[in-house]
Amino acid sequence: MTDQESVLQPVPDTAADDRPVVTENGGLRGGRCQSCGAGSFPRAYICPSCNSTEIHDAELPGEGSLYTWTTVHISPTFATPYTLGYIDLSDGLRLLAQVLAPQEQLRCDLPVRLATSDQSPTGWGFVPVEGATA
Ligand SMILES: [Zn+2]
């Protein structure tokens, strides 16, 4: 397949993937580029690092650290308030996700892990690692 042909292929709707985000091992269901090894979540169709389309399903680490966060007070979709944060996974991928913890427990570089939760409208989010304190 030439580069021109690959651009003309329909793009799979990875957002329509209804498999659980949290894997049986507590990892994050995402993708990994077969060309450069970069992870993506949700699984990318085109690698943001090298533009390859050879991205396979992969289990990404379910642990990382909180880079920064904000609390959402107005939402047309979800009950408020809720907290969103950028999570740096242990393999280097940074992603936006819900943070399921009170504000007073949060700090930059707080160790967090992936968890399923009924508190989250998506059914998952990141929680502080036990023993980690602000
Ligand atoms: Zn790549």
What does this structure look like?
InterPro entries: ChsH2_C, ChsH2_Znr, NA-bd_OB-fold, Thioester_dehydratase-like. This protein has one helix and eight strands, in the order αββββββββ. The model has no long low-confidence stretch (mean pLDDT 89). It is mainly beta and 134 residues long. Helices cover 4% and strands 37% of the residues. It binds zinc ion (ZN). Zinc ion (ZN) binds next to loops.
Question: What are the SSEs and their pairings?
Answer:
Layout: H1 3-8, E1 28-33, E2 39-40, E3 55-60, E4 63-72, E5 82-89, E6 94-99, E7 111-116, E8 124-128
Antiparallel strand pairs: 1-2, 1-3, 4-5, 4-7, 5-6, 7-8
Protein name: DNA-binding protein
Domain ChsH2 C-terminal OB-fold: 59-115
Region (Disordered): 1-24
Oligomer: single chain
Low-confidence stretches at least 5 residues in length (pLDDT < 50)? none
Terminal residue distance: 52 Å
Calculate Rg over CA atoms: 16 Å
Following the backbone from N to C, one meets helices and strands in this order, namely HEEEEEEEE
> Major β-sheet, in short?
5 strands, antiparallel
Summing up helix and strand content along with how strands pair, one would put the structural category as mainly beta
